Amino acid sequence: MSARSRLTDVQVAAVARYHFGLSPTVPELPQSGDWEDAQGVLVGRPGERGPTVVEIPRWQSPGTVAQRLAERGWAVPTAWVGRPPTDVAELPAQVLALLPVAGAPADTATISTTAAAWARVRATGRAVEIVPVPVTAAQPEVGWAELAEAYGATLLGSRVDPEPARTGGGVLFFTGLSGAGKSTIAARVVELLLEAGRSVTLLDGDEVRHHLSAGLGFSQADRDTNVRRIGWVAAQIAKHGGIAVCAPIAPYAAVRADVRHEVEAQAGRGGFVLVHVATPLAECEARDRKGLYAKARAGEIPAFTGISDPYEAPTDAEVTIDTTGKDVDACARLVLDAVLAGPLQAPAPSP
Length: 351
What we know:
alpha/beta, Rossmann fold, five-stranded parallel beta sheet, about 20% strand
């Protein structure tokens, strides 16, 4: 068996577009070995004139869709791209709903929320065929009329939001020095969210280290891996409408930015809220019950954030709090006041 290169969702979508004739652009792919998707399914292999496709499990070819509709008696299918119109009265009795979701995972909220909107159209008695298509919503590689024609339909209209769908979930990501008060405030925020009836999960730093990141040390690479793992789990929670609260030190700006991108790709823009607990180093040292700062200054703990390892203070935090002399409950309510009226406010359901 020859070696395989794993393709990203974006690359698999590009292969599908090229194979289906939706784009003349030959995708840029690894030139050695065969190609598989994220699930390990053999997608194709390099050929002299572009990729030779073996199988693309996620995407339905235009020909397959057109044949299926013909077999159902849809003589001249009408297509609508994206979410249904606000006034569904303009839709015919039969409609092909094409969802441009290239690059998004199969369980993305964009698909689930749009499919739910089309399910409400079905409830009006209309026949609806929903087909995700390997085209990018924000910068489509083919015009909507040409897309509909490729699937054997005529275009009636479109309603495409280039931004990922808002799920109503989100991530409260606390960052700051050891002893700043992150975990204490985060725990109180969780209590207040539960009292408000929200679905919330606390990703405790020690628990994550024990269960999810066992074996990792405290080098920069290992710290980055730990924070990215926390971010990935938090994004999955937010994608399904829950709120994840996490409070790692997360000292490096680039990794925090990666987590923000992951969360917003899953939960929609505004779904990530960075809370900088900006308690000064001197105050953190004064609170140090475990004597960690003293050990770090004595050289007993290498690469300790704030002493022998840098902490890159955020410039993009939605909330910044210095806990010096402040009550925990007051700090927690300050965070909630900032986010529940904005970023984590549950969106109204799409029509």
